[in-house]
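Mods, move this if it's the wrong board.
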Amino acid sequence: MRQTRILGVGMYLPEREVTNQELEAIKELETSDEWIRQRTGILSRRFVSEGESGTDLAVHASREAIDNAGLSPDDIDFVIYATLSPDYFFPGNGCFLQDRLFADRTIGAMDVRNQCSGFIYSLAMADSLIKSGQYERILIVGSEIHSTALNFTFSGRDLSVLFGDGAGAVVVGPAPNGHPGILASALHSEGKYAKELWTEYPASAHHPRISHESLDQGRHYPQMNGRMVFKHAITRMVEVSHQVLAEAGKAVAEVDLLLPHQANMRINQMVASQLGIPEEKVVNTIAWTGNTTAATIPICMHEALKQGKLKENDLVLLTAFGAGFTWAASLLHW
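Not the wrong board. Structure tokens:
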């Protein structure tokens, strides 16, 4: 069976930078730069401008990934688009991206809704599709716009300081003969905790999908049980990392680089510590991107390449945890 390899990486962040000091100036938010930095490690994040969509961000990141793979859009035969913030309730963003990049070709496009774990879920799916021979080169995109759905008052503070907007993309395809490619992936969920991190409205489970009462109560804003999410994220990211290492027959000491989901710097530090991976082998971008959910890991890949930390044949561990609860990990040779 042939192996799958990441061929190219791209990313895009909106131009508007929002610093902690700018959030500090919002009186209703009752926060400070020190409070945000100590709890999250975030210094700034990017927000979209009026009229800028998640698909717009995805187009930029996708074009860079395709170009860095030495390919053209004509070489892509399937699209997987991971997001928790689609431009519209339906159809999915994958179709809008298909129109923007591949308008003359009716290639398949699907959306993945696994929130912060969405990129790894998408990578595992693409790996299977390529190994099966169904597709040759797949574009995976994680793109998010959080800024238009945040509650910038004290009641929404814990979440509103965390998130940013951005996109990351990779192209995956068959690895050369003898290249190990993607070694193992593991995907998990535990739906009994779904309401510990969720957005309740608008929803087809409610009749009507949204109401004046739900809006007045702020139930259309994301809600999070922060302490529970923090605890579960560390436990599950460590567990699933050990799982993929065991499945691949690799030891933690063999890992050259850890690219964790960027939700909170303290989470990542504790995950790395519990795994026994030293700081110099970890790439974090949260300080200047915030949490961009499905986009965080490809953005980390892009940064690792830019810094020269990610090199040919490195053993790379990806791990993530998010709403659902969902969590996942992949282990691959670069």
